Amino acid sequence: MKIGIAADHAGFEQKEALVAQLRQEGHEVEDYGALQYDAADDYPDIVVPLAQAVAQGTVDKGIAVCGSGVGVSIAANKISGVRAALITESYSAHQGVEHDDMNLLCLGARVIGPLLLWELVQTFLKATYKGEERFQRRLDKVIALERRGTGTSED
To answer: Is 9 an annotated catalytic residue?
Structure first.
């Protein structure tokens, strides 16, 4: 599987460890940065290229890491075609893929440890979208919202 990964300064160390673990497991990994530690970097600059790669199908799935996971989740979801979520436990790591076709996993390096980070990554990568009628119906509604634009009543 081709995995895209990105992290800002707060997730840099954990991203580097995940890249090594993913490659050891036989995955092809595309690192979208940060490529070196920079305490002044900004998560939107780091996660947008990853999110675009996920949306374009350049990578099969994406992983983004920042301090809490919130920032990368918010920024990634601004890219059409991305379904990113902050995940902190195993159930949602697979359920988000199986039911909602989540394609970008967001993690908080400052709030969960390296063993749980790795468990969540493995769970996310092993999960597949079930595509049952009820899941597809809901996903189609989400995609329609995305296509409408802002989602405001003026649209």
So the answer is: no
